Amino acid sequence: MSGAASTHTNNLEAFWMPYTANRQFKQNPRMFVGAKDMHYTTSDGRQVLDATAGLWCCNAGHSRPKIVEAVQNQVAELDYAPAFQMGHPKAFELAARLAAMAPSPLDHVFFTNSGSESVDTALKIALAYQRAIGQGTRTRLIGRERGYHGTGFGGISVGGIVANRRTFGTMLTGVDHMRHTHDPERNAFTRGMPESGAEYAEDLIRIIQLHDASTIAAVIVEPVAGSTGVLIPPKGYLERLRKICDDNGILLIFDEVITGFGRLGSPFATDYFGVTPDLVTTAKGLTSGVIPMGAVLCAAKIYDAFMNGPDHMIELFHGYTYSAHPIACAAALATLDTYDEEGLLTRAADLAQYWEDGLHSLKDCPNVIDIRNLGLIGAIELSPIAGEPTKRAFAAFLKAYEDGLLIRTTGDIIALSPPLIISKAEIDEIFDKLRKVLTSID
What we know:
This protein is of the alpha/beta class. It is built from 16 helices and 15 strands. It has two domains: 3-63 and 343-440, Aspartate Aminotransferase, domain 1, CATH 3.90.1150; 68-342, Type I PLP-dependent aspartate aminotransferase-like (Major domain) (Aspartate Aminotransferase, domain 2, 3-Layer(aba) Sandwich). The two termini are 43 Å apart. Keywords: Aminotransferase, Pyridoxal phosphate, Transferase.
C-alpha cells in the first residue's frame, strides 16, 4: 500500500491506543500523516503547529535532514547488533559524547529504549550499588507525589500520579513519597522559579525519620515535574534535597526525560540548576523522538563499585535486547550534531523571556487559575468544570486541533513544550491561537 491509500484505513478497532479516550477518538479520528520542522500534516491536508514537540521529545523539530540521513544509512550498514558481550562503534562514540556533555562526575552511560526503561534501570542500579558497597539494608526507594517516572512497575511505584497507580495493585514494596511542591496559594502566576517552597524538601527528613536512613537507597525526582502539569521547583529546593541525600548516604536521581537536551536552555537541568545528582535518566530528546532510545548517566563512583571480582564475570545482570541499538545510536549522534550546529541546547535561554511574556499574557483569559513557566516549558491551569474534571482542558485540546495547534493536556492543565527551533513568530501564533481557544470554550 502506498500513496494516499496508505493514510486511510477502515479498521481502527484493533489498535488499543495508549493514554487515549479510545471510544471518543475512534468516533472522530485525528490522524497525522506527515511532519516537517514545526508542523504536522493531517490526513485531510491541514498543517498543525506543534506546540508540544510531539510528546516532549522532538526537540530538534521534525524530519531534520541530518538525522533522517543517518538513520537511512545505518539501516543499510548495520541494522542490529547485540549489546550482550558484543559491541559496535557508534554505541561507544555516543556514550563518550554524552559523558562529555554531562557535568562531572556523570561519566558513564547505560543505554535503554525509553524513559520508562531508564527509570527502572536507574532504580535497579541504585539498589545494586548500595549492596555492592556493603549497604544491602538500603532497599527503600523514595519518590514524590505527582511525580511521573514512566509506566514500568518501578516507575509507577515511585511515581505519584494517582490515575497511573490505582488499578495496578500494590506495585513495588518499600516505596514512600515526599509531598509535591505545588503551592498555588503562595505561588500562582509565578514567572520562573517560585520564591516560596524550598522547605518542602524537609519532607524527606520526615521520611528518613520514619524509615531510618539505613533502609533508603535512593530518592528520585523530576527537576521540573512535566507530565503532572509543569511544576517548577522552588528556589533552593533541589539544593536542599541534594544536601539531605548526601548527609544520609542516599543516592539522588534526576529524571530528565523531559528536561534533558535543551528544554531549559542548557544541556541538562542539572546544568541549569547547578545541582548534580548521582544518576540521571534521559530519553525523548536524545534522538529527537526519531527512534526510541534512553540512557542513564551514572556517576563514576557507581560504575566503579561494580568493577570488582573476576574479569570474566558479568558485573550487572540487567539490559535490553535493544540497548544501544545501532539505528538509535546513529539517530542520537546525528541529533547531537544538529543540536551543536544550530545551537539548540542553549536556544531556549534566548527565547525564554519572550516565551514567558507570551504565556503570561493569557492570564486574563476565562477560567485560567494559574500559569507556570521555565525555559521553553509552559502550563496553563484551568478551573475544572464542577463534577467533570479534565473535560474543560480536553475541550481546549480538541478546539486547538481544529484551529491548527497541537497542545497537550493533563487533568485540567494545558502543557506546552515546542521544538527548540521555534521562531518568535511561531510563539506569537501559539498564544494567539490559545487565546481564541480559551475564549471560545465553556
